[in-house]
Amino acid sequence: MNRRTMGKTVLGLAGAAIALSVGLGAGMGSALAQEKLKVGFVYVGPISDHGYSYQHDQGRLAVEKALGDKVTTTFVENVPEGADAERVIEQLAASGHKLIFTTSFGFMNPTLKVAKRHPDVKFEHATGYKRAENVATYSGRFYEGRTVVGAIAGKMTKSNIIGYIGSYPIPEVVGGINAFTIALREQNPKAEVRVVWVNSWYDPGKEAEAAKALIDQGADIIVQHTDSPAPIQTAQERGLWSVGQSSDMTRFGPKSHLTAIVEDWNGYYVDRVKAVLDGSWKPIDTWGGISTGMVELAPYNPAIPADVVKMADQIKADIVSGKRHSFQGPVKDQSGKVVIPEGKTATDEQILKMDWYVEGVQGKVPK
Amino acid sequence: MNDLALIGPILAAMFAAATPLLFAALGELVVEKSGVLNLGVEGMMLVGAVCGFAVAVQTGSATTGFLVAALAGAATASLFAVLTLFLLANQVATGLALTLFGVGLSALIGQGFVGIPLEGLPKLYIPGLTDLPVVGQALFGQDVMVYLSVAAVPLVHLFLYRTRAGLVLRAVGENHTAAHALGYKVLRIRFLAVLFGGAMAGLGGAFLSMDYTPMWAENMTSGRGWIALALVVFATWKPARAMLGAWLFGGVTILQLHVQGLGIDVPSQLLSMLPYLATVLVLVLISRDVARIRLNAPACLGKLFHPDA
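Output (structure tokens, whole complex):
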């Protein structure tokens, strides 16, 4: 269903070599601390990306901080998805790691393969859907954050055009656009969303070009579901609002950055390591949202009026208490057909397979 | 909003998007005219991008940043030059290796510079002219690097076709044995050409990291080095055509984003493909005229040379 399905081709080869050597080094170094639980983390990007992999590594650091006397952690960054990933995961499993987090969608099959060979090792795979005796899965309900952001955008837009930069038209991103648009039009029925797909998770140049194009077409808020801060910089340069992705991107455009949807794995990682320590670990599927702390919002821009902040906080509270759902009926698609009837909310199944736009989004979902 | 009013912004964005391609393509054009095929453009761009950015952050001076970027690009290219010119390594393999090396090296240098914001270059503003409808922003509202890249086109052309040094460089690229027999230092000329190519690639990369999206991110050139390489063939080794090619490529890139934003129903994957499709199409059209390719392509392109052979 999810992110980072695209392998990095050329870079991947170089990355694999680095990754493997890091893995080897770490394996030897921690042989001294034998009683401690060894926990391994596999990242698809560099931890310095200040985005997706950075946030996962923050989770690892949180584990060290909370349980440092009982565990040691190892991480391998820049691991390309595919066959190379299997070697890295195998290396971690073979060097005594008893719990391994593989944090990208493309690690799904390699994780399952290695898990089969190491029944005594527990695995946690992010954003995937295949589980096994010793493989659990977890992901975040990021669309909940987009509901809050959509409401803020509805209050802040003056041109009533929101520019939305999408990575790939996968259900996670399409669902995010829909959740955003529903909340946006609840506050401001005249507002519309224009989507530009850049077909990349991380291409600063292209993301900046997309932001410029949307701004030239009249958008006064730029929302992104890509990972580089380039759209924030562009919005700041043009004196307009923007919403960041994955982590707090305020420093790239302090006058422009309204807030960002932040992925926070800290609590989950600490809980799962604790579960292994006390023997209660089970191969479950966790899909956490704002209520579990897995989805957070970066600090609001001080320029957002107090009543808007209050409204945003209220929406957050309602999502946590279950009073509000991001896809609360009636929800109509672009043709005006009611897809989610009044009194109902979208099922997880519907959200995980979302491939249609709600009313208020321009254009069609690329198929 | 009136869709026609978008022409101005599209033109303005097109020139900026074409700038890194133009720098790199002009550099590679001179390299190939001297008979050397350096496939390491992407790597040299990345090293230039990270070094320029790092220096600009440290010193606060964009000029120093761009100078260092050019030097860093040239230094990376010198590695290629030593390997292929003096140690007679295969140019294709060495060029590919240079790209892989550049990706890794730039990531290593850039480790401490990820997530640091930088101010871009100021844009030109001439009251009256910049405010002109349609062309104002595109022609009079860019920053200095965009103008420099365009100014480099006639300079490279004049050098290649109107100076003695340019004639010698082309002679070396056409027939290195004959040029050697006439007493020209084939290897020295090629070495200098490769350095120039590296410096231009470095500038193109630094334009991305210091101006276009002022930040450093691993692999941020995202394949623009390869496009620059294609542009050289596309241009049949003519500087002015390389510029047109860069504009065409930049224009299609920007246009497809606008088409999406306007909600016109065309698959976005197809649109993302368009710039590359346009390149392939033009290459096919040019290739139909075999004589033209033969006449323009340096005859010794990619061939190794040893003075004693």
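The domain at 9-140 of chain A is CATH 3.40.50.2300 (Rossmann fold).
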